Amino acid sequence: LSHLCTIGRMVRCAVMLLWAAGLWGQTAPYDVIVAGARVVDGSGSPWFLADIGIRGDSIAAIGALGSATAGVRIDARGMAVAPGFIDIHSHGRRGLAAVPTAENYLREGVTTIVEGPDGSSPLPIAPFLEGIRKMPVSVNFATFVGQGSIRQAVIGLANRPATPAEIEKMKGLAAQAMRDGAFGLSTGLFYVPGNFTPTEEVIELARVVGKMGGIHISHMRDEASHVLDSVRETIRIGEEGGLPTQITHHKMIGQPNWGKSVESLKLVEEARARGVDVTIDQYPYTASSTGIAALLPQWALEGGQKSTSERLAAPDQRARIKAAIVQNLKVDRGAGDPRNVAIVNCSFDRTLAGRNLTRITQARGSEPSLENAAETVMDLVNRGGCSAVYHAIAEEDVVRIMRSPLTMIASDGEIPVFGQAAPHPRSYGTFARVLGVYVREKNVLTLEDAVRRMSAYPAQRLKIWDRGMLRPGMKADLIVFDPATVADRAEYDQPHQYSVGVHDVLVNGKFVLRQDKVTAERPGRVLLGPSAER
Q1: CA distance 436 to 111
Q2: What pTM does this model have?
Q3: What confidence tier does 1 reach under pLDDT thresholds 50, 70, 90?
Q4: Residues 194, 222 contacting (CB under 8 angstroms)
Q5: pLDDT in tens, 493-519
Q6: Mean pLDDT of all residues in the chain?
Q7: Residue 9 confidence (pLDDT)
Q8: How far, in Å, CA of 220 to CA of 191, rounded?
Q9: pLDDT in tens, 71-118
Q10: CB 304 within 8 Å of CB 157
């Protein structure tokens, strides 16, 4: 009897070990098996050869599944399989309704997009997310709540500190957004009305969000001449707000500031050494993109479009605005030449898409001097504004920031309607570009570390514990790609080109890209933050 009991315990132990390894029940069919791939699991560990079995919306097993059956078996020999990428800074709500497949993201391996950056988000959050659920969509969707949107809801676009009563209202809106499912607070301290906000006011909201498990992610107040002060401010918000803080799309704009990433990274490292949870994300390009109004002094934007137009009509104020634009074209986003500023889209004149300020100024019958280009900018703003691309970043800073172990990858992109306007190529190529250029060609990162920065790292940052790595029990968001051919194709003058080399993409266990073709599946889910009332 004693002998039989010992055998019984051994059998139970064996069953438990098989179950933990994901091997128990292999004879039952899987929905999908990805066979023979190099598994790059998201942890940063070296790849290994294995099969992956999927049942329902989750990974059921990782191991040798040669004898198992499946509804679909992918022969992935020579390919890599990785967790679907998580884009922690996306403007995907701009195009998601028009393109619910988010094909530009699928073709570079993104399975989750995180919206609400730069201090701007819908308010309230709950009905907005419900609208996303009803679309439905191919990718998972999450959001931050924007500090600028909260401020505008309470005091409009006024350039003044909030009163104590107004701050309490803003804190209430921030708390409700967290209960609605936001992952944290985004700030756009470069933009109206965020740029009118004292740091102390941001910290008040950060404390609320931090106590509810959220993070802070900031488009800093300045990424050019005052970039180091802005890094210090972002760190301070996290340190005094008591929450993780992130410098988003970190870069050095304008030639006089090239190389300052040495100092900015040192500031981040010193902050972490004293216990501040600060991290970074970036996109792998030497051009940024935002509204053409970014060339105007911020005081000129108070009150919105009508107020700005009134200032442009007043000769003395127009002269001050013009002088500031000339300075920005010289040492900031213009990098000394109007041709470095190219229009993405103007709602009032679609023909301007893809044309730079030099060409537009010449078409107006003027020489393309900085002063004449400033006149062009003021005219564009007066007519309603445009979005633009600014070529003013050094590759050396891109590489230095990317090499920091504290940096993850984010696109700052949108979901374009294919063929319309002239969007920044980051919307089509960010993640594939990292794998093709900075892993394969330049050896800046290893394949395993690049995947970590695009999957497990942002998942950990957002406390999304069931995605971002390949493990039994995790959600089956995964991609199959060819490390030898994955590449971005989008160029500044020809941006509407999909990335190549990602052949299969699954979201929640369903194929959204199968053998290079977008499917009819829409399995994307709304992901909720740590304090959501589920």
Answers
A1: 19
A2: 0.93
A3: very low
A4: no
A5: 999 999 999 999 999 999 999 999 999
A6: 94
A7: 61
A8: 9
A9: 999 999 999 999 999 999 999 998 999 999 999 999 999 999 999 999
A10: yes
What span, in angstroms and rounded, lies between the C-alpha atoms of 389 and 239?
Answer: 33
Q: For residues 434 and 194, give the distance between their C-alpha atoms in angstroms, rounded to a whole number.
A: 31
Which residues lie closer than 8 Å to 144 by C-beta, 6 or more apart? 114, 115, 116, 117, 121, 182, 183, 184, 185, 186, 217
- Among 130, 433, 156, smallest CA distance to 306 is for 156
Closest CA to 34 of 373, 497, 470, 451: 470
Q: How far apart are CA 101 and CA 518, in angstroms?
A: 8
pLDDT digits (tens, 9 = 90+) for 287-316: 999 999 999 999 999 999 999 999 999 999
Quote the tokens at residue 507.
């979201």
Helix H or strand E encompassing 202: helix 199-211
Among the listed residues 284, 290, 288, 287, the one whose alpha carbon sits nearest the alpha carbon of residue 401: 284
Yes or no: say if 53 and 61 are a contact pair by the CB < 8 Å rule: yes
Gap between the Cα atoms of 337 and 341, Å rounded: 8
What pLDDT is recorded for position 534?
77
Place of tokens 């972490």: 272
Distance CA 409, CA 515 (A): 26
- pLDDT, average across residues 340-345: 95
Q: In 3-state terms, what secondary structure has residue 104? A: helix
**End-to-end alpha-carbon separation of the chain, Å?**
51
Q: Is the four-CA dihedral 8, 11, 17, 22 of positive or negative sign?
A: negative
**377: its two tokens:** 């900018």
Q: pLDDT > 70: what percent of the chain?
A: 95
Which helix H or strand E contains 504, and what residues bound it? strand 502-507
Q: Which residue has the tokens 């997310």?
A: 129
The pair of structure tokens assigned to 457 is: 């790292």
For residues 355 and 343, give the distance between their C-alpha atoms in angstroms, rounded to a whole number.
6
Burial of residue 354 (CB within 10 Å: 0-12, 13-18, 19+) is middle
Which 8-state DSSP code applies to residue 46?
Answer: P
Render pLDDT for 3-57 as a digit per residue (tens, 0 to 9). Answer: 434 545 654 555 454 444 544 444 579 999 999 999 999 999 999 999 999 999 9
DSSP letter string over 130-158? HHHHTS--SSEEEE-EEHHHHHHHHHTT-
Q: Copy the structure tokens of residue 512.
A: 């959204």
